[in-house]
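Hey, weird one. I pasted the 3'(2'),5'-bisphosphate nucleotidase 1 sequence into the form twice and got a warning about non-standard characters only the second time. First submission, copied straight from the form history:
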Amino acid sequence: MSGNPAVVMRLVASAYCVAQKAGAIVRKVLHSGELGIVEKTGANDLQTLADRLAQQSICVSLSRHFPKITIIGEEDLPSEEIKEELIENGQAEEILQKSCPAEYSGLKEEELVVWVDPLDGTKEYTEGLLDNVTVLIGIAYGGRAIAGVINQPFYNYQLGAGADLGRTMWGMLGLGAFGFQLQEVPGDRRIVTTTRSHSNKLVTDCVDAMEPHEVIRVGGAGNKIIQLIEGKASAYVFASIGCKKWDTCAPEAILNTVGGKLTDMHGNAYRYDATVKHMNSAGVLATLRNHDYYISRVPQSVLQALKSD
């Protein structure tokens, strides 16, 4: 695209490079061996040096170029001087070259909200389950997730030394999704992906009610959405509080772009305005196809326990 790209295209192009930078930070901290782990609310809710540095890098890099956007990050960090080496100024040229969907071409910075999870799957990160880890940057307008960037810092790590580590995928409504090969679970197989470390009876009952042929238990909301769009799972079912807006904004944008859907257990969409509460308190149900089937299978006990916002 010649001339001056739209604000939202510049923001996505920046977010792409910033997510890659954050992924590099996450790898560097792991390789240093000094993770700096602290418990936030308990043993299943951890924060590491990688979470802290990656969030600083993302938030400062984006706010420096887009001072009027609202950025909401997972980690509650003290304001401090950021090292210049954490700043990413690049913008992905391939994104700037694309034409902005007409409905978003006039958006102003102050109309956009960015939801950031600097390291989704922290517990798995500390345990060496590195393919579960993602960096999530979601962009919302009018309460809706319209664009998202997901970086997988350790993509290909199983291939060992010399492998080309990491990948970045992105998507925008009305434009498309890039950086992965869209695939569906074959035929009528129902493969449900759900939480690895935050399960309870409600979660298990809801998964069972879907009558799955197979259940996968992995960490990270971003990772589970990737499973949906790459044909490894047909539904992500999490009948519990615990997931937050920064976990779902970027993945939902990419999922919606390829025709999928993410809702609460009642089938209602979540909103991503700057003022909403951060918790997805009515659970998460995400699918690439056949969303209505999965919604119809949610047990009454789940619907009663998890009230919509």
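That's the output from the first submission. The warning seems to come from a hidden character in my clipboard, not from the data itself. The longest helix spans residues 7-32.
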